[in-house]
Structures are given as structure tokens and as C-alpha cells.
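Run log, item B.
One chain of 269 residues. Sequence copied directly from the ordering sheet:
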Amino acid sequence: MDNPLNHTGHSLAAFVDGLQARGRYTFTRAEAATAGSFSGVALEAALRRLRQKGRIACPRQGFYVLVPLEYRVAQCPPASWFIAEMMGFLNQPYYVGLLSAAAIHGAAHQQPMAFQVVTDRATRPAKAGRVRISFHKSRSVREMPVVEAQTETGAMRVSTPEVTALDIVRFSEAAGRLNNVATVLAELVERINPAALAAIAPFYAVPDVQRLGYLLELVSAARLADPLAKWLATRRFRPVPLVPAKNVARMPADSRWRIIPNELPEIDL
């Protein structure tokens, strides 16, 4: 079968058309250079022309995404079309997380402005056309359970509902702050397995587990909160504010979770 990466002498546009004809929507600069035997200057000029025409997008230097006709106005297809390939290009472990994962699991109350991804190192945001991708750092990316979600172009790694619940508490600012975190949890609880939730608790900071337990109890999900309380009983933990870095004055802590309720969440359902 003809290899779309073997078009020596053909234009870069023909190479791109060949990729799309075979259902592939990403390529790297190195692949394009090999495919067309371009000189460095000629390749850069050809890539620039295709970007100006809206035929390709570049969310990360050296990595390109084909733009089908229906996404020309947006200037880039959705991040789900290429996130797996881009993270492979960056050689970074990842999973789609936080509100993006919550939406995939059915908790779509508030769509994030950026497609949210968790990886193992500080990574600057990616941008292509109207598509925005934000990255959040976790040392435990490789250990976290994920599900494979089918996309228009293949599959991507998505955090499980249990990981998603802990992550939106851990990265509460990125998850729309307390009210939205509580609302998403209320939508997500039916998909969370209590044993699976307790099993990943050791990978998170104890205060994040305290906060999640408190919020789960608040949204009437005692079956999920109880295993976390049992796990916390084996740890030494101190009072922490529900909302970090917010004034707690002299407010008393909750007796079970040792949470200082310095803000009362409003659930918007």
C-alpha cells in the first residue's frame, strides 16, 4: 500500500492530502522533511503557506494538525483529535483530566475554556486557532488508572471518574473553584466506585482527601465518603481550610474531616 510519508518530489500539499485520505490528521516537521526531501528553507516556506491557507495548524513547534474543511473557521479540529499524538511527540505521559474528563463521564455542567490535560512535568499551554490546551502537573500520572475514550481519529487516555474527582479538588482553581467543584461532584457520584476511590487516595496529599470526603458528604454521597474516612483514620491529619489560601479567622473545624468551612459551596443543578 502506498505510504503517505513517501512522496519524494511532491508538494507538501500533496503529502497532507495523502495523510487525510488515509485517515491521519497529524504529522511532524521531520516526517514532512523526509516525505518531500525539502531543504530547510523550502520546508519552512511550504509549512507557512499551508498555515496561512488554514490547511494545517501548529499547536506545538514541530507538530502539525490537518484542518478539515468543517473546522476552517475554528482554524483547528478539537484537541481530542490529536492529543494522544501530540503527547507522544512530546514524549510525555498524560491523561485528559479535570473538567474535560468530567464532561466525558457525563458531568458536563460547565465546559472548560481549555482542554485540560494532566502530565508529569510543567508544560506550557498549547494554542492552535480557537483550540486551547492547559496542562497540570502530577508526579503520579503513570500510576493513575485511565479509560480509553474513542475519538474521531482514534483513542485518548482519560482519567477514571475516581481520579477525576480527586483531581478537581486538587486543582480546584482550574476546575472553576468550590461551587463548580461541588456541582461537578454531585453529577459525577453515580459513576464513582468507592473501593477504587479509596485505592488511589494514597497518591494524593492528605488535605485533598479530607476536602473530597467533606464535599462528598455534602452532596449526600456517604457511600463514597465512608471509605475515605476509614483511610484517613490510619493517617495523622490536621485541620485544613476547605478553600486553600483563604482567610479562616477562628472558625472551628468539622469533627470528621477536620475541614474548616471557610466557604459554603452552592451546588448549581
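Observations after the first pass:
- Confidence is low (pLDDT under 50) at residues 1-9.
- The longest helix spans residues 40-52.
Flagged for discussion on Thursday.
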